[in-house]
Amino acid sequence: MHAPPDPDIQTKRRPPFGEFVALVAFMMGLTAFAVDNVLPAFPALGRTFAVSDPNRLQLLVYVYMIGFGATHLVYGPASDIFGRRPAFLAGLAVFLLGCVAAMFAPDFETLLAARCLQGCGAAAGRVVAVAIVRDRFVGREMARVMSLTMMVFITVPIFAPAIGGLLLLVGDWHAIFASMLVLGVLLGIWFVRRMPETLRAENRQSFSVGGIAAAFGQTATCRPALGYATAFGLMFGSIMSYVGSAQQIFAEDVYGLGPYFPVAFGLIAITMGFASLLNSRLVRRYGMHRISHIGMLCFVGLSVLQCGFAFLFAGRPPLLLFGGILALSQFVTSLTMPNFNALAMEPLGRIAGTASSLIGFYTTFLGAMCGAFVGQHYDGTVIPLALGYASLSLTVVAVVLVTERGRLFRPTHVEPLR
């Protein structure tokens, strides 16, 4: 069901449902684009900045995610105090500054700092987008909107590496960061013109360090929020471990696809878009618990199967076998993660901005650290990735079982925070 009308925004024209979903997805999707668009440029960046260790180039992904995670703690309270629009636009300005800094980076260390700055700005899109959705929707309808948003958001990685590859054909790696700059400007124009303030007047918070700390405490001690945020972060860690090592696995060491790497990456990523669309239809009928728990168990089975084949083929399973199981794994994560996110946010409507920031900070750091740990153990085979998927998926099941006190598939009544 829809949240009650907000008198503060009745006088402003809301975008229609389809445009609302597309705009919120763009806010979140810019983050994914900024991560994946740069992957094809790893070899060129390695040559430009004399980076001899290929694993070190993965830091371009992980420092971005560290900056992205750290500033979640800023944008959430800011959006609850000053409103969704000012918080997002401030973050977008930081992101654009990071794009310019990356384009003119004189050395690899400066490029890493610019990537971190990009992540610091991009966090506003993720935090404010979730808060805007929670402002307008609740329950299964919120899960449906998040699934539709994720469907659009997830299609970005399908095309981002291919776009990066095309840009490298007509220019050098500077063009990749220029494309991020252009998209950021376009997003800012669209947001300013079409997205009204969604924070209800009675939910606006006054600035108070004690109040922010209390909201963080409420979020951290809410059992469903903490449990499902942890499960989300662990599943996100598996995706980050894949993103960090995908270029080395597909383009270079294991399968040697070279310029065809974006094709393999896109074919695997497109299954996530289909899953998000399917989830948006199924969740209204079967509920968030049932869909996410079934997806979680399927993820475990596929991860263990992937691990078995990795060892059976000495770390180099056939491309179709490896890619097929990996695509199915990504499919079920997209049936699971949007619902985990909705379940974590559901009891926290009154402090949606601050809650979104703390949950985003926690899940991003957890995912980035897990992904970096797995990625930095890359050894020229798929075995580290397969072991990472299997261990993370089993831990997700344990966390959800503790959160639900051993009961799966059925919703537990949760009182919203007051």
Automatic annotation (TrEMBL):
Topology in the lipid bilayer: Multi-pass membrane protein
Top-rank lineage group of the source organism: Bacteria
Keywords: Cell inner membrane, Cell membrane, Membrane, Transmembrane, Transmembrane helix, Transport
Keyword S-adenosyl-L-methionine applies: no
Stored PROSITE patterns: MFS
Any single GO BP term: xenobiotic detoxification by transmembrane export across the plasma membrane
Ranges annotated as spanning the membrane: 20-39, 59-75, 87-106, 112-133, 145-167, 173-192, 225-245, 257-279, 291-313, 319-340, 352-375, 381-402
Cytoplasm listed as a keyword: no
SUPFAM superfamilies: MFS general substrate transporter
Compartment(s): Cell inner membrane; Cell membrane
Assigned protein family: Belongs to the major facilitator superfamily. Bcr/CmlA family.
Protein name: Bcr/CflA family efflux transporter
Organism whose genome encodes this protein: Enterovirga aerilata
